[in-house]
Every structure is written in structure tokens, then in C-alpha cells.
Write a structure and sequence with these properties.
The chain is α/β, with parallel strands linked by helices. The protein is built from nine helices and 14 strands. The strands form four sheets. The chain has a five-stranded mixed β-sheet, with helices on both faces. It starts with a helix and ends in a 7-residue tail after the last helix.
């Protein structure tokens, strides 16, 4: 083998080591490469996504690039789609079903975007935001907690009211305790569950107590309206005060008892982008979606009433 042949063999061997996806063969006089007819290079990207329950779930996606041959350019893992972004929304627990649906609409209309949620009592969310929790959008179940967030310096711009809600009574299916009025909740032996006073649904319950002169003695005060609902669906209490929308969503898991005094206390829901938003443009898009025709239709279907 002459010097020129040895140099060609060494170069071809080096290429074969680097391109492990390509088979190579060598002979005493030179080297040839054999490339599969549809060779692709795939890479799996794994990421942790916060679900609506607050738990982290693992999601993976794979991307592929076209085949490469010796002497050509080898493509690596595909880059994220143009405009790829993750939006974090902190929202009142009573908005879980509707906002999850609206989040799906946003993702469909903005390819490459992902919406993650933190659903909890509005007062808890405000405390988290003021303590520095990262988020792009905040939606409260009352204006009082939005005011706290604004005073705490975490709200950007002016909040927009987008819906209203009122309370109703829910009992286990069949209403075993025979609850028919708000006053019945104060009867001896009736185990009633309400939201804690600092939570919007709890503040509304207290106002109704004041308006009616009926004083409740709850066996439990919960941090979110969904927790109250859970106590009823699990049979741990005779009755609970939840939003009309939550009662509607529970369907036949509860019996709903309407009472006229509930209309005297209406909770208004505001939404706002946040000063610490890492995706301000997408945050604005989400707010516009919630307050626009599509979002309003989703909210109305769940029983929310329009904002004043």
C-alpha cells in the first residue's frame, strides 16, 4: 500500500468512528461507506411539567432529522418550535375546570406553547406570589385578594373583571339531613362545612350570615371551595357552602339546595398579568382569551355569570 492509499484509509476510518450510525468497510486500496436508505438521527427530550394538581409529570417528545451520508452535514436534535414558551397561571380553585379548558384552547391557537396551572384558594395564591413564587397570570375569586396582590407589588397593569359567582348549598346525594333553607345549616346536629374566612367563598359565607342574622357553627373551615366540596362528596358532612359552578360540576355526586339569600353576595373574579412574568406577551394573550368570546363561552357553560 503506497503512502497516498494509507492516508485515504486513515481519513475514511476517522469518519467511520465519528458517524456511528453509518456502516463502513475497508479494503487494502481504499474505503467505501454504506448508508441505509432512510437513516435518521433521533433525540428524546424529557421535561417536567406541572399538572393542574400541582404534581410534576414527566413528558417526552422525540424529534428526527433527515439522513446524512459521508461527506454531508449531520443534523442533530431538532430545536424547539419557534415561539415555544411555558405560561404559568395561578388561579382560584373554582376555576380549575374552565381554565384547564381555556388553557387547551390557548395551546391550540399558539403552537409550541404550554400552559401550567396552580389552582388553590385565592388567599393562598396571593401569599405565594408575594413570597416570590414565579407566575405570569393571577386570577382571583374576589377583588379583595386581587387588591392584596396589587398592594404587594406583584400585579402588572390594571386587573380585568371577567366573571361572577354566587354560593349555594350542597349535601350528599338525597339530602339525608333534609336541608331546605340557609337557616337549616345552623340547626343542632347538622354538620356543615364552609371555606375559611380569608378565602373568597368563606368571606361570602360570612356576609350572608350577617345579612340573614344566621350564625353558623361549622365543623370544618377549608382553604378552598374544592376542599369543601370534597367533604360533601366523601360523606364527611351533612351540608356545605360552595359556588354554583362547583355544584354544577359535581353533578349527581351532590344534591344542590338553592337559597334566595345567596344573590345578595356576589363574588367578582378579576384577572391580571404579573410583574414577574417571564412570558408577558403570552400572559396578555391568555387574559384576552379569558375575557374574549371564547373564554366567556367556556365560563358561561360552567355556570359563571358575566362580570358587571
Amino acid at each position: 500500500m503506497n503512502r497516498h492509499s494509507r492516508r485515504m484509509l486513515a481519513a475514511a476510518t476517522a469518519v467511520c468512528v465519528a458517524a456511528t450510525v453509518v456502516g463502513c468497510s475497508s479494503s487494502g486500496s481504499g474505503a467505501t461507506s454504506s448508508t441505509p436508505s432512510s437513516s435518521t438521527v433521533s433525540a428524546a427530550a424529557s421535561s417536567a411539567v406541572v399538572s393542574s394538581s400541582g404534581k410534576a409529570t414527566s413528558s417526552a417528545s422525540s424529534s428526527s432529522a433527515g439522513g446524512s451520508s459521508l461527506g454531508g452535514s449531520s443534523a442533530g436534535p431538532s430545536a424547539p418550535p419557534a415561539g415555544s414558551a411555558t405560561l404559568t397561571v395561578f388561579a382560584a380553585a373554582s376555576l380549575k375546570a374552565t381554565f384547564t379548558q381555556i388553557g387547551t384552547i390557548l395551546q391550540q391557537e399558539n403552537p409550541g406553547s404550554t400552559v401550567t396551572f396552580n389552582f388553590a384558594g385565592s388567599s393562598d395564591l396571593v401569599a405565594q406570589l408575594i413570597a416570590g413564587a414565579p407566575a405570569d397570570v393571577f386570577a382571583s375569586a374576589d377583588t379583595a385578594n386581587m387588591t392584596k396582590a396589587t398592594d404587594g407589588g406583584v400585579v402588572s397593569g390594571t386587573p380585568v373583571n371577567f366573571a361572577t359567582n354566587t354560593l349555594t348549598i350542597v349535601t350528599p346525594p338525597g339530602n339525608p339531613a333534609g336541608i331546605t333553607t340557609f337557616a337549616d345549616l345552623a340547626k343542632s346536629g347538622v354538620a356543615v362545612v364552609v371555606c375559611a374566612p380569608q378565602v373568597p367563598c368563606g368571606a361570602a359565607a360570612q356576609k350572608i350570615e350577617t345579612n340573614t342574622g344566621v350564625t353558623l357553627t361549622p365543623v370544618s373551615e377549608e382553604n378552598s371551595v374544592t376542599d369543601v366540596l370534597g367533604k360533601i362528596t366523601s360523606g364527611q358532612a351533612d351540608a356545605g357552602l360552595v359556588y354554583v359552578t362547583d355544584a354544577s360540576g359535581a353533578a349527581d355526586k351532590v344534591t344542590t339546595v338553592s337559597f334566595p339569600e345567596s344573590t345578595t353576595v356576589v363574588n367578582t373574579y378579576p384577572i391580571a398579568t404579573l410583574t414577574a412574568a417571564t412570558q408577558p406577551a403570552l400572559a396578555t394573550t391568555f387574559v384576552e382569551l379569558v375575557t374574549g368570546p371564547e373564554g366567556q363561552q367556556v365560563l358561561a357553560s360552567a355556570g359563571f355569570q358575566p362580570a358587571p
